[in-house]
Amino acid sequence: MATDLVNKETSEKTTIATEEPSEQPTKKSRKKNKKKYRVRKFPIWLRIIVVLILFVFCLVLGVIVGYSILGDGSPADALDKQTWQHIIDIVNKE
Q1: Mean pLDDT score of the chain, rounded to an integer?
Q2: Which has more confidence, 8 or 66?
Q3: pTM to 2 decimals?
Q4: Computed over its alpha carbons, how large is the radius of gyration of the chain?
């Protein structure tokens, strides 16, 4: 059984070593030479804008949920300027 494994390994090595690359260009190398431009249905600049809008939406939603549910406040007060000024004053200890 061990000799069979050794024979298989040596036969694979010899077949790999005897293969020579052909001089003629293959289909893959011809395709690499041609540059193919893809028209995107959803452009990259629009993806960036959508991600930024989703980020802002999630941030506002998180502030409202955190202030109203976890902090026992009113959801409308979470976006109030005076609330944020009070939070900033507490952090800066003025």
Answers
A1: 78
A2: 66
A3: 0.53
A4: 32
Alpha-carbon dihedral sign for residues 28, 31, 33, 39:
negative
pLDDT at position 52 is: 98
Euclidean distance between CA atoms 65 and 76, whole angstroms: 11
From CA 85, how far away is CA 35, in angstroms rounded? 55
12, amino acid identity: E
The CA distance from 80 to 88, in Å, is 13
Looking up tokens 């059984």 gives: 1
Nearest Cα neighbor of 60 from 75, 42, 71 is: 75
* HEC readout, 9-22: HHHHHHHHHHCCCC
DSSP per position, 42-90: S-HHHHHHHHHHHHHHHHHHHHHHIIIIIS---GGGGG-HHHHHHHHHH
